[in-house]
Design brief:
Cro/C1-type_HTH, about 55% helix, single chain, 17 helices, 434 Repressor (Amino-terminal Domain), about 5% strand, two-stranded antiparallel sheet, elongated, DNA binding, about 400 residues
Length: about 400
């Protein structure tokens, strides 16, 4: 069972600040047992507003984020609703509402009391309007960092005057190379590495060629044990040459007509009634073919093992590179061995301005690939998973 989202927010704060569960429960205003039940059984009922307000205050997250997590945990918001983008006008109205709310925020100036201590001036008439432009710039920087960079967030219409103005404001605030952008990020960073896709995108890697070569070699040995047959009547010379190179027997003319269904049934019935024993040579061929099938399985196991080991190295390198960015949000790096390479996202480029993608790409480029291992994939499979029992290279 996945941890409830509300508990994830609380645990993220607890792990970052080293606060005990008992102390955290006290600050929030719930019992330690109640907090433990949230973690083990999930958040079955929506906590009262006072508790959610206390959670937001203690962990330093917006109330709306805490409420959203609680609504999701209690079923008021579903995965489909959370994943579906809201309509443009709805989001726009929320943005206008937040910016309008910010325009009404004030700062209370400090004054010196009769005791000589400094305190906030309680007179509401002394309130000063906040620097709303700085607020908007901070918000834009946070959104750009969450989106992946200034160019990424302005990609909808990069040549517009609006994009030019917003881009200039952001670059003035965080630098043209975005060096100060990433500290504004508020969303966790999630990186999924697909080793197979990374190897496919790596022009310098020949690991896929090793995979294909292993299968071709196994097929060549199978053909040497029990050659296939191809008839020449409708084949072009190049096809026949390829067949000959693979050890396939080429017979002139057209193939004989296939047996009828009745003839096949009669042959099978006769064989079932009186099985023909294999000759010593036929049994040797069966044993050799079975050994080759075992070797094919070992190659598949070795492929998976090499991808997993490569994925472990990639994960360590990417985590180290992203940690060096000192991002203010949690970073999760996972390795995906199950998604086919052609369905996985492309590997990030080192030429991107996105610091997260660039760090990921640099780490990937510096990680040794499986094709740097000694020998061929077929040889490594034979060594790692038992002796090669398919040395019937006729």
């Amino acid at each position: 069972m996945a941890a409830p989202r509300l508990v994830e927010l609380i645990d993220r704060y607890r792990n970052a600040h080293g606060v005990s569960e008992a102390e955290l429960a006290r600050r929030i205003g719930v019992s330690r047992e109640n907090l433990r039940k949230w973690r083990i059984n999930g958040v079955s009922r929506l906590p009262n507003r006072a508790n959610l307000t206390a959670v937001a205050r203690v962990i330093g997250r917006p109330y709306r984020e805490v409420l959203s997590a609680a609504l999701f945990d209690t079923g008021y918001v579903t995965d489909d609703q959370a994943a579906s983008p809201r309509p443009y006008d709805e989001v726009l109205q929320d943005a206008i509402g937040v910016l309008t709310e910010a325009s009404r925020l004030t700062n209370q100036p400090m004054r010196q009391s009769s005791s000589g201590q400094w305190e906030a001036d309680p007179d509401p008439r002394s309130a000063l309007q906040i620097d709303w432009a700085a607020f908007v710039t901070e918000a834009l920087a946070g959104a750009a960092a969450n989106a992946g960079g200034i160019d990424t967030i302005l990609a909808g219409r990069p040549g517009s005057w609006e994009a030019s103005v917003v881009g200039d404001a952001l670059r003035a605030a965080v630098g043209h190379d975005e060096w100060d952008l990433w500290r504004h990020r508020t969303e966790p960073v999630t990186v999924v590495l697909n080793p197979e896709r990374i190897l496919f995108d790596d022009d310098a890697s020949d690991w896929f060629e090793q995979v294909d070569a292993a299968e071709r070699e196994i097929q060549r040995r199978e053909s040497a044990i029990r050659p296939g047959i191809v008839y020449s009547y409708d084949k072009d010379p190049q096809t026949l040459q390829w067949a000959a190179d693979d050890g396939t027997e080429i017979r002139p003319g057209a193939p004989p007509p296939l047996p009828t269904t009745e003839e096949w049934a009669a042959v099978m019935a006769a064989e079932d009634a009186n099985p023909t024993p294999l000759s010593a040579e036929e049994q040797a061929e069966e044993d050799a073919l079975e050994a080759l099938e075992v070797l094919r399985g070992r190659v598949t196991v070795q492929e998976r093992a090499e991808l997993a080991e490569y994925g472990d190295r990639l994960g360590h390198a990417v985590r180290t590179a992203l940690a060096a960015l000192q991002l203010p949000v949690p970073i999760t790096v996972t390795v995906d061995l199950d998604t086919p390479w052609d369905q996985a996202p492309e590997t990030p480029s080192e030429w991107t301005a996105n610091a997260i993608d660039k760090a990921t790409a640099t780490a990937v480029a510096s990680t040794p690939t499986p094709d740097t291992l000694p020998g061929t994939l077929l040889e490594r499979a034979a060594v790692a998973h038992g002796p090669d029992n398919a040395d019937n290279r006729r």
